[in-house]
Amino acid sequence: MAITDPKIAQDDRSLDQTLRPKGWAEYIGQEMVKKNLKILIQAAQERNEPVEHLLFYGPAGLGKTTLAHLISKELRSQVKVTSGPAIEKVGDLASILTNLSPGDILFIDEVHRLNKLIEEILYPALESRSLDIIIGKGPSARTIQLELPPFTLIAATTRIALLSAPLRSRFSGGTFRLDFYSENEIEKIIERSAKILGINIEKGAVKEVAKRSRFTPRVANRLLKRCRDFAQVEKSQSLTQDLAVRALDLLEIDPLGLEGTDRMILNVIISKFGGGPVGLQTLAAATSEEKETIEEVYEPYLMQLGFLERTPRGRVATGRAYQHLGHSFSGQSAFLS
Ligand SMILES: Nc1ncnc2c1ncn2[C@@H]1O[C@H](COP(=O)(O)OP(=O)(O)O)[C@@H](O)[C@H]1O
Ligand SMILES: [Mg+2]
Questions:
Q1: Distance 72 CA to ligand 1 centre (A)
Q2: How far is CA 142 from CA 92, 135, 138, 323, in A?
Q3: How many Cβ atoms sit within 10 Å of the Cβ of residue 210?
Q4: pTM
Q5: CA distances in angstroms from 192 to 22, 260, 271, 285, listed in the order given
């Protein structure tokens, strides 16, 4: 499952596309972000200028890529999609930029993984729409400057802290944080997805899936699909609450949406490190997970639940985590005493 991997599994990717909202009305929640974007778009359209460069950040699966597509739809402009790690050489970026048409949107996902040399090429492109290319080597090398068409960069990242200050400052249109959704919003998203997928779902099942979906649309959609498989194999015409509970229990997703690895991480902090603080490096070694995966995939939701805290000395499991996992909590952890 994708949750064990920061990169999205193929199955999730095609599901993402099928269920991706096609207009603002279908994009549920994130009201402040939507309001601000609509104003930016309208103002730019009235001035007949491209929208200024935008940055979206927040945990995976909350709707960053969807927003980029919605904006392009609204502007009736083409969107060219790439990602930080896909742009390996200066030439890769140069070729992407020189192939843009006026008004295009360039979407760079995982922008925190853009190599620093390439980042520097991007600055003048963002600021003055110029591309400086060095031709030749040694004493005969010279720089030529190409003018780029007006375009909008939309970048997305799960790790805003890793972006350099100069890059962050170039998003003149704004930097927007996507938050976890409310249970109510997730329920609406599940109902919409069920309709599109032709699933006859009971309200109780909607609630059950919503509760366990980490307040994250992508997870909600994935769980919905797993529940549908379960109902189908059970030869049920509709997805009832009972079927949803059984399907999700079988997947070992607990009532708060924690999966095996979430529980393992907390259990390791509690049992091996007395509740913490424990450094990320040590935690990664003790759980056999990648540092980045712990930080990007598991921690945001554990912190959202108030089960985990990041402190200067390391990760700490809270009393709530002890309680949820059935450990007795003395309140004597080094952090809390
Ligand atoms: N606000 C929303 N309303 C409805 N569905 C959403 C919303 N945000 C995300 N989704 C669903 O979740 C999936 C993942 O969203 P995506 O934009 O790919 O997330 P991110 O790029 O932040 O990882 C989308 O395909 C879409 O089906
Ligand atoms: Mg995305």
A1: 15
A2: 20, 5, 9, 66
A3: 25
A4: 0.91
A5: 12, 28, 42, 41
Query: 3-state DSSP call for residue 205?
Result: helix
Residue 219: strand, helix, or coil: helix
Q: Which of 83, 178, 216, 218 to mutate to test the pocket of ligand 1 (most atoms within 8 A of CB)?
A: 218
- Nearest residue (by CA) to ligand 1, atom 11, is 217
**Encoded amino acid at 198, one letter:** G
183-250: CATH topology is Helicase, Ruva Protein; domain 3 (1.10.8)
Q: What is the CATH number of domain 260-325?
A: 1.10.10.10
Distance, CA of 157 to CA of 58 (rounded, Å): 7
Range list for CATH 3.40.50.300 in the chain: 30-177
Contact 254, 217 (CB under 8 A): no
Instruction: State in Å: Cα 65 to ligand 1 middle.
Output: 7
Which residues of the chain does CATH 1.10.8.60 include? Answer: 183-250
Residue-wise pLDDT tens digits, 93-111:
999 999 999 999 999 999 9
Class of 30-177 in CATH? alpha beta
Judge whether residue 336 has pLDDT over 70. no
DSSP codes joined into one string, 69-134: HHHHHHHT--EEEEEGGG--SHHHHHHHHHTPPTT-EEEEESGGGS-HHHHHHHHHHHHHSEEEEE
Catalytic residue list:
64-65, 109, 158, 218
The ligand whose atoms approach the alpha carbon of 176 most closely is 1
pLDDT band at 333, cuts 50/70/90?
low
Ligand 2 centroid vs 236 CA: distance in angstroms? 34
- CATH 1.10.10.10, the chain: domain bounds: 260-325
Task: Report the half-sphere exposure of 10 (CA within 13 A, side-chain side).
Answer: 0
pLDDT at 6 over 50: no
- Is residue 277 lining ligand 1, measured as CB closer than 6 Å? no
